[in-house]
Every structure is written in structure tokens, then in C-alpha cells.
Amino acid sequence: MTAMDLSRRVIVALDFDTAEAAAAVVERLGEAARSYKVGLELLTAAGPALAAGLADAGKDVFFDLKLFEIPSSVAAAVRAAGRHGATMVSVHATAGARILEAAVRAAAEFPRLRIVALTVVTSLTAADLAEVGVGATTGEQSARLALLARRAGCHGVVAAPHEAAALRRLLGPGQLIVTPGVTLPGGPGDTDHARPAHPVAAVRAGASHVVIGRALTRTPDPAAVLAGIIGDLRAASE
Ligand code: C5P
């Protein structure tokens, strides 16, 4: 794997409430960062201009929209993201086959755009699932949803790192597996990942991409943290 491929596999989450704060991190990361994720906070607070600018500059941009709506609305949102240059959009797999298929059809207008289905949000436990009427473990539920997503034509899934190995065995080599919920030793304390994992562990387990936010963006030297992760991934792949 080339250095470029490896750096594109590390997706920096720009979870900020102003475009200026996000732009400051982008500026500090410079050429080293090839992939970004923009989510509901930044898009709602600041609009899509920053994300579209990143796409124009050649970055991969994951619009983490976590869509769950009627098929025509999901398709319209996917097309809107595609026009901004998005390379990835997330849809909740729980939304079911017809909604996932609508997203995939809409994405087909944009050759680089991939639809990833969110299986089980990484902070959820079996008890949380039981509360909403799902009588499966998080592992069982993420496997069921991953197969549903593949049947619907999705390009991959978003899943917790500890589900990555089982999902890779289940899905085979072609599908994307995007894992948020990664952490770094000595990074800022994190409370809402039920079971975080190191990026190298996530990739070894089968993740195609890791998403890293606060443990990188909220540090004094984000470029050094990113270089460290890419270096660790490179060492692990040799
Ligand atoms: O924790 P961190 O800042 O690295 O989070 C980066 C991204 O990971 C967030 O934008 C969120 O979408 C995702 N995340 C998640 N599950 C969590 C916490 C964060 O999927 N429990």
C-alpha cells in the first residue's frame, strides 16, 4: 500500500461549531491530511462551504449525514452532498432496504461517491438496543445490518472497531469498513465511546478507514498526532 493510500484511510473528524475553528485545524494539518469528515454540527452551524472547499482542494470528504428519511428525501440529500463533492455519505442501515437503495441510486450519478451504512452507533450497548425493542447483541445487530446494507448495494458500513473483524469476515474484502471510536494512548479523555480501539488495531481487524476526531483535533499539535498515526499504520503494514 502506498503512503498516499494510507493517509487517505485516516479520516479527520471536523467536529466544530464554527468554520473558522475547523479551518484552523485544516490549515495546521496541510498536505498530510487527505480525508476529512464533516458532520451534523459543522454543517448545521457553518453550512457546506468549508466541506465543498476541501473537496475542491482534492481531499476526500465524508459527509456524515446519518440519513434516515423517506427514500426521495434521502436521495435528494445524497445528490446535494454529491454536488458539494462528497466522496462518502452515511445512511442509517436501520432505515431498511428501500431507503438504502434510494441512497445508492442517487450516489451513482457521482462516480467517486460511496454510500456507507451506519450499523450500530458505537456508544450503544445491548441494554440500549433492548430499550428500543431490539433483542440482539450489538454484534448480532451490526452483522444483520451489514448484510442488509450489502444486499442494498451500499459500498460499506460504519461500525465500532470491535465489530470490524467479524464484519470483515462476513463481508469479504470488497466492502468499506469505516470505524469511528478510535483513540490514542495518552490522548484527551473520552467518555462516549463504549469500547475505543487504537487505529492500528482497527485496521488490523479489517477496517478500511478510521475516523479520528478529538484525540487529534483537540491536541496542541494535530499534525504531529496525524503523522504518528500514519507512521504507525505504515509500520504495521510492512
Ligand atoms: O471521539 P471522536 O472525536 O474521535 O469522534 C469522531 C467521530 O466519531 C464523531 O464525529 C462521531 O460521529 C463518531 N463517534 C461515534 N461514536 C461515538 C463517538 C464518536 O461514532 N461514541
Describe this structure in words.
With 238 residues, the protein is α/β, with parallel strands linked by helices. Helix content is 47%, strand content 16%. Helix 9 packs parallel to helix 10 and helix 10 (199-205) packs parallel to helix 12 (222-237). It has a single domain (3-237), classed as Aldolase class I (TIM Barrel). The mean pLDDT is 93. Cytidine-5'-monophosphate binds next to strand 8 and helix 11.
Blueprint (SSEs and pairs):
Layout: H1 3-8, E1 10-13, H2 19-29, E2 35-38, H3 40-46, H4 49-56, E3 60-67, H5 71-83, E4 88-92, H6 97-107, E5 114-118, H7 126-131, H8 138-151, E6 156-158, H9 164-171, E7 176-179, H10 199-205, E8 209-212, H11 214-217, H12 222-237
Helix pairs in contact: 5-6, 8-9, 9-10, 10-12
Number of domains: 1
**CATH superfamily (homologous) name:** Aldolase class I
List how many beta strands DSSP finds.
Answer: 8
Question: From the 3D coordinates, which CATH architecture would you assign?
Answer: Alpha-Beta Barrel
Element-level helix/strand string:
HEHEHHEHEHEHHEHEHEHH
Number of helices: 12
The whole-number mean of residue pLDDT values reads 93
So what's the CATH class?
Answer: Alpha Beta
Instruction: Name the beta content range.
Output: 15-25%
The CATH topology is given as TIM Barrel
> What is the structural class?
alpha/beta
Helix content: 40-55%
Low-pLDDT sequence parts: none
Order of strands in the sheet with most strands: 1-2-3-4-5-6-7-8
Hetero ligands: cytidine-5'-monophosphate
